[in-house]
Give the backbone structure.
Amino acid sequence: MQPLITPQPGIMEIELYQGGASKAAGFDQVLKLSSNENPLGPSQAALAAFRSTANTLHRYPTTDHAELRTAIGEVHGLDPARIICGVGSDEILGLLCYAYAGPGDEIIHTAHGFSMYPVLTRAAGATPVVVAERDRVVDVDAILGAVTERTRLVFVANPGNPSSTRMPDEELARLASELPEDVVLVLDGAYAEFADGYDGGVSLVDKHPNAVMTRTFSKLYGLGGLRIGWGYASDEIIGVLNRLRPPFNLSLTQLATAEAAVRDRAYAAHCVALNAEQRARMVAGLRALGLACDDSETNFVLPRFSSPAQADACEAALRGQGILVRKVGGYGLPDALRITVGDEAGCTRVLDAVAGFLKVAA
Ligand SMILES: *Cc1c(COP(=O)(O)O)cnc(C)c1O
């Protein structure tokens, strides 16, 4: 019998999101390098702001997020009127899908793009179109070649997750210029701060009314547990998204903590510097062990093993020592593992554990 209640078309096609593992059997404390979190956690100023909100929890938060937008605007040199804040950048990505796509429409993302893109595309009733990358780097010609009259959005994570690579700036500019003006170009900058000299797409947003940049407090700012992200786009796009955004989407705790975090520029710079130092060590160390590994522009590295079986065995061996890393077979990279860059001691532990695994495997 046909069930009486049926969801909208496409919903049952959504694969449930798999988060990074946070537990390993037999360990109270794990070294969690599976979700690209900041190993140092949030800044002290952010924690102080977080605690201070305990006194005002009976108050509703603002609905316009003016203070947080002003802070982001000051720190990043942007017009606060063209910023929108959301429950993680995931919420902004979702609002973009709901605003601009529906049944019959297509949304393009690249082969090793973030796994939320197809989820949000289906949630809007639209159809995901996946295009190949070239050697784990976003391929502009492949994207342009996949555009049809049904294409409404293109998602590009730059730098990419789980690829860790960054597109050449000229290629990104070419994509923005050559994409039809009625297609929304979403520049997901979750890792923009870790890419040396990259503006996250600001200059392209300022030039192209159909371009949007999204950013997050979950990675560099160490606030993944609190769920705050933001977007920057033309007045036109921001005006559309604000109509869809639930007015009380962010709690006053989220707003106050994020504002203090973004204003603590010294701490952010310290975290970027630590990541750059340990990331270089990780890439060099993994290569010295004979593993292929692209230069990373993010806070994680992606070593490639000789086979999917070897990658799986290494993940299990690390888990056996209480070290959690991410398998990325679901992203079409079954021979690789995604490993978040930890602090110095954490990186040493990973490199030693991988070396030990390869010795036993040899
Ligand atoms: C982590 C991540 C995000 C952001 O997530 P939120 O926590 O929702 O802000 C967005 N895109 C990519 C590619 C990511 O890796």
